[in-house]
Amino acid sequence: MTTQPPEKISNTLVNALTRLSLGAGMRRSMQFSRRYPSGAFGLVLIVAVIVFVSTAGMLTPFESHRTIAPKAMAPFSRDFDGAMMWLGSDELGRDVFTRLQHGGRTSLVIGLLAPLLGTAMGTLLGIASAYRGGVVDLLVQRLVDVMISLPGIVLSMAVILALGFSLWAVIVALSINGVGGAARVVRSHALSQSQMEYVDAARALGASDWRIVLKHLLPNSMAVSLVLFTVGVGAAIVAEAGLSFLGLGVQPPTPSWGNMLTFAQNSFRFGPHIAIIPGLTISFVVLAINLLGDTLRDALDPHLRGRD
Amino acid sequence: MPLLEVKNLKTHFFSDDAITKAVDGVSYNVEAGETVALVGESGCGKSVSSLSVMQLIPQPPGKIVDGEIIFGGQNLLELDREAMRRKRGREIAMIFQEPMTSLNPVISIETQLTEAMTLQLGITPKEAHTRAVELLDRVGIPEPDVRIKQYPHVFSGGMRQRVMVAMALSCEPKLIIADEPTTALDVTIQAQILDLMQDLAKERDMALLIITHNLGVVARYADRINIMYAGRIIERGTCKDIFADPRHPYTLGLLESIPRLDQPKGSKLIPIQGQPPNLSDLPPGCSFQPRCRFAQDKCSVEYPDITDLRNNHSSACWEVNNFKAIVESGVSK
After folding, report:
1. Which residue of A has its CA nearest to B111?
2. Interface pTM (ipTM) of the complex?
3. Would you give the end-to-end CA distance of chain B in angstroms?
């Protein structure tokens, strides 16, 4: 009996799975993961994180803000009642696993919505600025100058103080950080695109300004915006931690990955897991979003589509 | 009444320190169903004059300062933006020079081809799809029902120009303006595209306005020719008039500078001396006068009016009536 080379075995495995799967959707997702393995990995990781945070309160008997054990207990130690704490307790003796699940809800909502909002606003502003040119361009770009020159944290603080303390205020505040940069990058891209003959050709066929912006320039800027968004996710999760530290972000005892990380600093010497666990989690989510974002950008580019 | 009548069109570009008179008093007309050529070297204002008809001049810095553009009895310059937008594609369509950039790279051929039809004709996407496939088939794209789903980057330059022709045809306009439609293509493809355009124009009774610097293209396809120099038309006539009996020294110079099969072997081409003038700083009098080998004192004082000879053959030269005699006597600077 001859042994098969490993890639052949894996191919046979994939083929068998492909044949076994009944729906066309399943087949397509198999194709997707064969063509873009890193993107598929990112997607699986994100789904796992979403399942993790949505099962908060179901997997553990603890409450996220109640002290149930001595402070800074190592992972796999037990609480006062003898229940297992998989990830140990934090600096106030609360269960880290439970807090990670609850905190993830806040962090993911902020981490996804803030850059989404920011990049979307920046993209539209950038395209409008490039396409209209003249006075509009001048005014928008000077506004962008102001946004970029102010430190992001100061801008966010001002917005939160103006809007009041709420989750939405934090999201809006953090989204504004991304607007300036996105507007600038997208503008330069759209500027080169709007000089292309296809814009004139569309106009010569009777397309209106709105149509040219939405149907021609916006799809052409998606690749740039997508990258800006994926970079923004990590920044937003970490920036929320900064705001929490200043007392302007998510207010304790409500957990977020950012404020877990922030408040772990005093106990880092005797309980390093309290900082390492949320830190690693943030890194994984950012990695997953980046992998998926890169893949999406490639998958959306017609030049690369249909190529193995 | 002509389909398109351009009267004394002046399109100028304004910058801080100069006014560039890209088009400075151009008049021409296009009858329904005929092919008219606008010929001239780079920078003579031929593209600007056609973009002015579509009102696609970037404003600012460009501005149409004077003139009338009468299309189907209506002065296009008096229409508001929205009314003008509805004319584009629907009644006047345009084919551009650079097929590699005139299709949007991230949108499928189908979307780009059906866009104008659903927009301007108000037909359903399904009808538009059927028509788009027919159009692609008509312009010579093999397997149109498969290729229509593809993206521009898999098409070659010639194929893309065919798609552009299909797009221009899609709303059955009365006039197609083709701005150097074959300049970016291989010589073998050029003839195919021009033949195709002419066949389609004849078949659908559309007028064709070809903007080119290639007199070879003109000789084969145009019914009437307008020669432009430095923002003005200096000679116009039928194809035969221009080639057999040129009445302007610039036209003569152009004809002398292209190789011909009926000339003795080894005879040299005669280039036109000098450079075309700067359009923001034109010479006094006739703008061709500094390069003209027949120039006289009068030429640097006053610009000659365009004068009719016969049958719409006209020329803007002081010596239009005894031009032949002057050429033969060989007077030169």
Report:
1. A215
2. 0.80
3. 44
